[in-house]
Amino acid sequence: MDELDAATVSTLRAANISEEMVSTLSREDLRDLFPGPENFLRRKRSGESVMVFQKRKLAEKTQNQRVLLLLMGHPYLRHPLQ
């Protein structure tokens, strides 16, 4: 939640939303948490942060799967010169 402003973080904490839960927030969730046109930019920035967090989690998951396959000796991950 480092990339979010203090008011956004405060609202998320008040709603008991942990950093791990941020990636599960939908547009509707953000609209409920930050209602009204005055919070449009806050919802937009929060949504972008959610997407970044989701991409980061996916990259970590993909990397972990590749390491597991490599450890298992999966031929897909063998170097072409071997």
Report on the architecture of this protein.
This protein is mainly α and 82 residues long. It has one domain (6-77). It is 63% helix and 0% strand. The protein has four helices and no strands. The protein is elongated.
Main attributes of the structure:
mainly alpha; 4 helices; elongated; 0% strand
Describe how the helices and strands are arranged.
Layout: H1 6-14, H2 19-22, H3 27-33, H4 40-71
The chain-level mean pLDDT equals 84
Number of domains: 1
Radius of gyration: 18 Å
Globally, the shape reads: elongated
At a glance:
The protein has 82 residues and is mainly α. Helices cover 63% and strands 0% of the residues. It has one domain.
